[in-house]
């Protein structure tokens, strides 16, 4: 006798005619290949095949996950999700189990691992001179008030690996200020098995963080991502896995620590960022993972530069170049050379800066490679121009800085909303340095207009500095308009 399915029936599906029209004369397999190819252009990896295309066109997938959303925005930047025949994510979450990656938040296991002890490190705290000693990482701030958008972001993390990790280990809810509970039953003390599914979940959380940061900035994500990192370390420290799974899990935890460190950096929590990077570097060194080491040195150099530690930034950039040398990615080597160029500009050594800049462009012009790391999706022509603009600004060449910052704004892909806001804020600062008060005000106003989309303390601080410098010139009409918009935005 055939098995009978029980439970609520799924709502009727409506074929997605818009996506079918966009496929045109291509077969589902050819169209899937095109989607995967376009995904690689922005550093995204999706397992799109003919079956997935069939599910989309049949209306079974009412809203694609964030990775596919990013790819579709890249393929058709002028179209919204609704234009592509999908339902808005909120509507899909409320009414349908057919979205390809949504879970009802009321049934998702909790990952709020609110403990005031620091994460247990996988190795002793690093004393590497490039990062300094690690500091304890505190719990999420209980006074933080999450609005509706924060709740959407929280569910993104709840639906990923951390929930599965905590639930699998019997630790989906840790008591406040307590160590992980020990099982009362001796037979239950056996370590829980961790396999490929849990590791893939950790890796997916890293991708989700990067995607959400591209759109929203760090401020809404930092606490949530910290909770995910705690869950990842529960897997790493309390799970039972084979050697191959362990290597993957350590790399995933290291990449997640870097991502959380970046969110701390962009939220102006620099000491916490150093701690996360220290943990990631310890993991990279312990596992002899050159790719992870290059990534963390890139971020350490950036952080040190922003904190005014030029020599440390230079040492980290050079260490990153050494780690990247044998990885086969010219774009990664280009980024490391640009990190070195930034350090020389901070030191005021124009000759060394220009040599490193020339090397960065030469490596970039060799083009992308299959070995390019997934996390480098942000490093395109716009980022290269934006980084160069920052260097010229430090050297006091405001004309060149303005030109390159304007190019960065124009070259930036639409879905990198946060970086577009950053380059716009930089352009306002550069115009001010050039003495163009009206231009600084206009671009400052454009950055303010993105405040409701991007939550980045670092970007807001840049705009605040421009506003402070312009207040003495409120008689200029453009400046007066900008200051009014800025004051209204920051008072809201």
Q: Please give the count of helices.
A: 21
General shape: globular
Biggest sheet record: 2 strands, parallel
Helix content: 55-70%
Flag low-confidence runs. 1-10, 93-189
What's the short story on this structure?
With 492 residues, the protein is mainly alpha-helical.
Describe the structure.
The chain has 492 residues and is an all-alpha fold. Helices cover 60% and strands 1% of the residues. The chain contains 21 helices and two strands.
Secondary-structure blueprint:
Elements: H1 17-23, H2 28-41, H3 50-58, H4 66-75, H5 89-95, H6 148-158, H7 161-168, E1 192-193, H8 196-216, H9 222-238, E2 239-240, H10 243-266, H11 270-287, H12 290-306, H13 310-324, H14 330-347, H15 350-364, H16 381-394, H17 398-411, H18 417-433, H19 437-448, H20 457-470, H21 477-491
Parallel strand pairs: 1-2
Primary descriptors:
492 residues, mainly alpha, 60% helix
């Amino acid at each position: 006798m055939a098995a009978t399915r029980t439970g609520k029936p799924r709502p009727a599906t409506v074929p997605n005619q818009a996506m079918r029209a966009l496929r045109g004369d291509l077969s589902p397999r050819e169209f899937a290949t095109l989607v995967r190819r376009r995904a690689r252009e922005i550093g995204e990896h999706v397992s799109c095949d003919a079956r997935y295309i069939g599910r989309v066109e049949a209306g079974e997938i009412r809203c694609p996950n964030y990775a596919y959303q990013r790819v579709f925005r890249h393929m058709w930047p002028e179209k919204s999700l609704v234009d592509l025949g999908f339902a808005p994510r909120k509507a899909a979450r409320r009414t349908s189990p057919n979205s390809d990656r949504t879970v009802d938040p009321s049934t998702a296991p909790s990952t709020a691992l609110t403990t005031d002890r620091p994460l247990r490190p996988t190795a002793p705290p690093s004393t590497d001179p490039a990062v300094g000693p690690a500091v304890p990482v505190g719990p999420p701030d209980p006074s933080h008030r999450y609005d509706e958008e924060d709740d959407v972001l929280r569910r993104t993390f709840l639906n990923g690996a951390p929930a599965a990790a905590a639930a699998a280990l019997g630790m989906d809810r840790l008591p406040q200020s307590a160590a992980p509970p020990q099982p009362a039953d001796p037979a239950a003390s056996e370590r829980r098995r961790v396999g490929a599914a849990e590791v893939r979940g950790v890796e997916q959380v890293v991708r989700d963080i990067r995607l959400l940061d591209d759109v929203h900035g760090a401020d809404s994500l930092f606490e949530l991502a910290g909770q995910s990192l705690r869950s990842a370390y529960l897997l790493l420290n309390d799970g039972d896995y084979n050697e191959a799974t362990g290597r993957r899990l350590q790399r995933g935890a290291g990449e997640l620590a870097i991502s959380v460190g970046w969110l701390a950096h962009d939220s102006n929590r620099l000491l916490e960022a150093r701690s996360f990077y220290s943990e990631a570097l310890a993991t990279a060194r312990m596992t002899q993972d050159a790719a992870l080491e290059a990534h963390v040195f890139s971020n350490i150099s950036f952080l040190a530069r922003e904190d005014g530690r030029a020599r440390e930034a230079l040492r980290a950039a050079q260490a990153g170049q050494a780690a990247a040398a044998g990885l086969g990615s010219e774009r990664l080597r280009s980024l490391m050379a640009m990190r070195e160029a930034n350090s020389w500009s901070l030191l005021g050594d124009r000759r060394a800066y220009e040599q490193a800049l020339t090397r960065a462009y030469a490596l970039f012009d060799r083009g992308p490679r299959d070995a390019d790391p997934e996390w480098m999706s942000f490093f395109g022509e716009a980022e290269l121009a934006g980084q160069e603009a920052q260097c010229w600004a430090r050297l006091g060449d405001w004309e060149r800085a303005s030109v390159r910052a304007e190019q960065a704004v124009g070259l930036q892909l639409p879905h990198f909303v946060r970086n577009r806001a950053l380059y716009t804020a930089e352009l306002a600062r550069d115009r001010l340095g050039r003495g163009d008060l009206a231009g600084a005000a206009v671009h400052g106003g454009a950055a303010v207009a993105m405040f409701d989309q991007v939550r980045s303390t670092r970007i807001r601080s840049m705009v605040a500095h421009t506003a402070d410098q312009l207040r003495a010139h409120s008689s200029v009409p453009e400046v007066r308009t900008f200051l009014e918009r800025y004051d209204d935005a920051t008072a809201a």
